[in-house]
Amino acid sequence: MTRPGLHTLTGGRGLLFGGDYNPEQWPEHVWAEDAELMRAAGVNLVTVGVFSWARIEPEPGARDFAWLDRVLDLMDESGIAVDLATPTASPPPWLGHRRPETLPVDESGHRLWYGSRNQFCPSSPVYREHALALVEDLAARYAGHPALALWHVGNEYGQVCHCDESAEAFRTWLKARYGDLDALNEAWGTTFWSQRYGDWAEVVTPRRAPYIINPSQQLDWRRFCSDALLDHFRAERDLLRRHTPDIPVTTNFMGLFKPVDAWSWAREEDVVSNDHYPDPADPLAPARTALTHDLMRGLAGGGPWLLMEQAASAVNWRPHNPPKPPGRLRLESLQAVARGADGLCYFQWRASRFGAERFHSAMLPHAGPDTRLHAEIRAHGRELRELARVAGRPVPARVAMVFDWPSWWALEERGRPSDRLNAVEQLFSYYLPFWERGVTVDLVPPSADLTGYALVVVPNLFLVSDADAGAMTAYVHGGGVLVVGPFSGIVDPRAHVRTGRFPAPLRAVLGASGEEWQPVEGPVRCRWAGGAEFDAHTWTELVAAEGAETVAAFAGDGRPAVLRHRAGEGVAWYVATMPEPDALGELAERALADAGVDGILPEPRHGVEAVRRGEILFLLNHGTETVRVPLPRPATDLLTGSAADGHVVLAPRAVAALVEPSPQTPPPGDDIEITL
Ligand code: GAL
Ligand code: ZN
After folding, report:
1. Whose CA is nearest to atom 10 of ligand 1?
2. Whole-prediction pTM value?
3. How far is the CA of 357 from the centre of ligand 1 (A)?
4. Which terminus of the chain has fewer Cβ atoms in its 10 Å neighbourhood, N or C?
């Protein structure tokens, strides 16, 4: 059976617009005002009930759904769809008080208490029993309710627990993975430091220890933690699906968030959704945001996804929280639309008066509707209706970038050549030049089918399986262009070093191999074969060409720094250092030339993001200056209705959504030339 997806919400509604709605924080007379203001703002989706466990179940086994009935009825009367949350992210104090074993324990053995949120042990049977009993009743109660459009399971999964029950669950997981203790000892390399396990009971979570913990144990622990949470997610999801097979199920991700292997999670959801809060102090935030959005699109298999949470203005959880200047809310939201989002939601609808987030912005601020912020929200809601036609439209990309959670986990263990190698920063440094050049990139897992892409970039893949390395090799032989960054292909899935010259499983396709990692302090001068120089930093490798040409060399001793190898029908690049951004730009251009891929704009402009979605070309000015952007073809701006012939002028934070005339096929025998 095909599962319902985001289209079941957007069909008839167009783009989704709304936010988290927490009516339990307000007296009921406020709800009516909420509904009226939501309608006026064009809100068509709200997430309800995320933190309502204690309100629904004030004491063990009690059920108070009457208030929630009234909320859902009100939303239905107002024509607003409900993304109903299972409130299991924050159990009430009575659960932790009566059953302390449901509370999580940190790696030092300290129990974490209630009084905040997220205080549950993913492997606690008692937590699960209480959570599922509530979810069952919630699902039964609201199955068939006309407002119910989407299920939101829990909130931002990422909990970790080191209690005895978690250790037991970890052992069960390990038994399923390895079968017996001998295999576990082998996989974890326990002959090292006398770590051999003679009895399963000895195997525990990587609790606080005197010195560096076994990296293979740590890697399996991270796999287990992600799987344990996923197992809980699935248990809730299955209950929901049983009661409401036609209602899609999601849970909100947090982008490149380390604890949860999003590739394995996304397969289990009907809708991919994300919470994203760009750092206003980071000048590169627009590009980082684009990367995160591209990851969501990748997780959604190239289809639409939902921006579940963003801030209308300031957050409250960074140390210093400036508001978003006028226009940024719109710019950031339209950036998500451009990169495949079909829904733009906020945390939250109405600003809280009390609690830990009383200084977090909202769509409706404390000062009320008659404010510049709320006026921007209304205008944005209106404008999104003009863009309804983009819902469901694809974002085409010919370039893929590989990212993998287990490799990330394995790379960042203690005890390596340099702890300055960071998987996400490495990914971002390779992503940035493509973003700047208006080249759309899909994020994919290492196991993805690469054959549809002209260029595949692997910024870092420290851990690689034989199968994935084999598929990358075959991809190049079949005509693909592959770029591989440093310290890739180093360990196998157990985090054991692959012996021989590195990167052992990619050596043949790269036509190069190395023998030593040489992290460096300060910049290292490098020289392109043509003579131009650039700096690299942090990392160098002692590599020899084995058929590859040396495209750039370390200036000091002439050893290869960047190599290019023709293999079969394709080309493979290897980068044995960390080039500065301009040099990565040069590298991106050369690889794009090999792949025959062009950027969207004839002349990219600094700070202007360009991306196509469906028949619309989005241009977003993230910079601080007005720019004139030459266009590939004349077009009409969907947002202003004005025609753009040859170029558009974009003020800071301005956005253009350009529709180009569709190329017409001349009737057969007719030799009219169409010039666009
Ligand atoms: C998210 C969370 C929301 C709210 C928001 C504040 O992490 O899901 O409940 O806390 O952050 O930015
Ligand atoms: Zn636990």
Report:
1. 357
2. 0.97
3. 9
4. N
